Each structure stands twice: as C-alpha cells, then as structure tokens.
Amino acid sequence: MTKNVLLFKGKETNTPLDEYEYELEHYNYKTDFIPVLDSKPESISFIQELLVQPPGHGGIIFTSQRSVDSWNQAITTLQQKQRQEQQRESIIHPQWHLLNVFIVGTKTAEKLSNLSFFHNEPIVHDRAVQLAPEMIPVMLNKKKQDPHFQNSILFLAGDKRLNELPTRLKEADIPFQEVRTYSTCAHPELTDRLVSKHQQRQHQHQQKDNGDNEEDWAVFFSPSGVNYVLERNIQWIKSIPKLAAIGATTADHMKQCGLTVTLISPKPRAKDLAAAIAVHDGSSDQ
Question: Locate the Tetrapyrrole biosynthesis uroporphyrinogen III synthase domain: which residues (predicted)?
C-alpha cells in the first residue's frame, strides 16, 4: 500500500520532478508539499559597497542558500552597472575572488559554486558545529604564515541564525563582521494550505474514508519552519503518526516544542531522507 509523506517545504519547480518527490517515489511513497518559509533579501546595497573596495577580511561564511541569493543579487547588479557604463575593468575588486570560503550545507555550496565567483575550494559541512573545528585552524594558521593576512571573517547570515559559529569564533579570538542578508517569514500560502489539509482530513473521517490519503509521515526542514506550523495547527501535527527532521538541529527544536521525533535524516539530502524513512518502515527492498 502506498504511504503518504507530507513535506513542510516548497516544491522545486525548475525541474520536472522535485528531488524529494523523486527519491520517495522510488520507495513507493506519495508526497505532498506545503511551503512554510519565505524570505526577503537584505543588505544588498551594503554588500555592493563592500565589493567595490578591497576586502577587509580573509574569509567569508555562507550559512544558507538565501545568503547566496542575496550575494548573487549584489554582484549581478554591479555587473549590470559595469555593462551599462561600458567599463572594461570589473567594478568588483578582484581580491574578493581570493577569499577563503566556508559553507554550511551542501545545497548552499552547490548554489554558490554555480556563480563561479570564488577561486578557492570551499570548506563545506552540513552543520555549523562541524564547520567550526576545520574553519578556525585554517584562519589561525594562515595568520601565522603571513602576519599581513586578514584573519577576520565576513559572516553572511539570516535573522534567525544560531549562535554556534559566532560563539566559536569569539572563543578563538577571530574577529568577524556579521551581515544580515535576509529575513525569514512565514510563506503567504502556509495558513490556507494547513487549513485545507486539516479540513480534508476531517472530511475523510466523517465519511469513514479508509485513510489511504492520510499522512503517514510529516517532515520538517528547519526550526523556524517548526514554529510557523505549530503556531497554526499544533494538534493536527501531533496526530500525524510519524514525524521526521532533516537534521539534528531541527530535531532538537521539535523535541523542545513537545513533538516526538521518529527519525532524523542521516544527511540533509533527499536521497538519505527517503532511504531512512523506507528502512524505518521496512520497505527498503521495494
């Protein structure tokens, strides 16, 4: 029997099949998507002001795909200005391309790589707690090797960033400049979609439906996503049999909110999540 997985995220529309839909379908799961988060870019003009001057930092941190989007918006606008003014030399100072790059999340790394902006190979980890132990020695060693090296870091983050990286940097005496590159808010469709889904389920119960369309799983992708959903319909969420988290940080927050976490994806990727759900349900051989 086909089981249903509700994903609290927006569905990718730039590909024929969303990667989560594709991977879960492989194990005979039916997926539904409810977009939870929306974001607004910030500090674009400030980033542009930084980019036209020599960098005052030796490294840069990207904590999410939205930070990359804001960065891309800033450099794209400058490049358009360069073309309009028919300037041969780049408006962006060339030393920016040489920064040491540190990234939280493989998806963030993929999106940044597509820009072809930085020349150095980035250091990438799925979580900030994993990134810090490798990032800090790199910056400290470069300062030892070259006294003129700027060992400060430009830290691009959102309004709901965690304290892990700032705390680690302060403990290591590495100065950083934090720039808020986006703010997170609830998706405009979230309330309506949750109400519709809840009403659909109530109707099935009234009609004594066999429940084939009810959710067997619900998956959360961020702590803020958990908050926005629970603010709107906590009882319905608690009635879903199995709840999964895309990573440990989200899982910890779910537990703090009183939810029972059935499963944590081994890695924050569609393939790993789908396989973990299938193994839990005993359907990995399908």
Answer: 19-274
Determine the Cα angle at 9 with ends 106 and 109, to 5°. 15
Q: How far apart, in whole angstroms, are the C-alpha atoms of residue 176 and residue 271? A: 35
pLDDT digits (tens, 9 = 90+) for 81-132: 988 888 888 899 999 999 999 999 998 999 999 999 999 999 999 888 899 9
CATH T-level assignment (fold) for domain 39-185: Rossmann fold (3.40.50)
Looking up tokens 């493989």 gives 106
User: For the ranges 150-154, 224-228, 280-284, which has the lowest average pLDDT?
Assistant: 280-284
Exposure string over 129-161, b if 16+ CB within 10 A, otherwise e: eebbeebbeebeeebeeeeeebbbbbbbbbeeb
pTM, two decimal places: 0.79
So where are the chain's domains? 3-36+188-281, 39-185
